[in-house]
Amino acid sequence: MDAGRISIAKTCLLAARDGSLSFPEIVGKLIAAGFEGYLVDYRRKSQTNYLPDGDSVTMDMHPSTGTVAAALDAAEVERLVRWAQANPADYSYVAFCEKVKAAGCAGYLVSFPGRRVVYFGRTAETHVEHFPK
């Protein structure tokens, strides 16, 4: 993968953590760079961004506290997504990561063409969120 795309992926990962870009802004930058989606893996503490041709880049995420609960609480994951979408003063991506792991989320897959995010648990339970229209 070329250095320019890797730089954009890293910038977006850091911007999510420090709150300098919103999720829609990050999605827009990644789409403009040609990415079709990404995978966050809380157990490996990594994020992988994918191009349509199969090329990818995997980056380490800053670790967040807590571990992934044994069972996915889909209702709690949905509540946390709504919290993130509302972007209240107490929201941060770091806090979201900690809370969603406590709700049993082991990671999530973002699909730009599919306009959805699939959250998954340790035993492959899933919760699907479609991008807002």
Order of helices and strands: HHEEEHHEEE
Radius of gyration: 14 Å
Total of helices:
4
**Unreliable stretches:** none
Q: Trace the largest sheet across and list its strands.
A: 3-2-1-4-5-6
Shape: globular
Give the rounded overall mean pLDDT. 95
Beta-strand percent range: 15-25%
> How many strands in all?
6
State the helical fraction.
Answer: 25-40%
Counting helices, strands and paired strands, the structural category is alpha+beta
Please give the alpha-carbon distance between the first and last residues: 31 Å
Largest sheet: 6 strands, antiparallel
Walk me through the topology.
Layout: H1 3-18, H2 23-32, E1 37-41, E2 46-50, E3 56-60, H3 74-86, H4 93-102, E4 107-111, E5 116-120, E6 126-130
Antiparallel strand pairs: 1-2, 1-4, 2-3, 4-5, 5-6
Provide a descriptive summary of the structure in words.
The protein is of the alpha+beta class. It has four helices and six strands. A six-stranded antiparallel beta sheet has the order 3-2-1-4-5-6, covered by helices on one side. A hairpin with a 5-residue loop joins β2 (46-50) and β3 (56-60). The termini are far apart. The mean pLDDT is 95.
Structural key phrases:
133 residues, alpha+beta, six-stranded antiparallel sheet, 6 strands
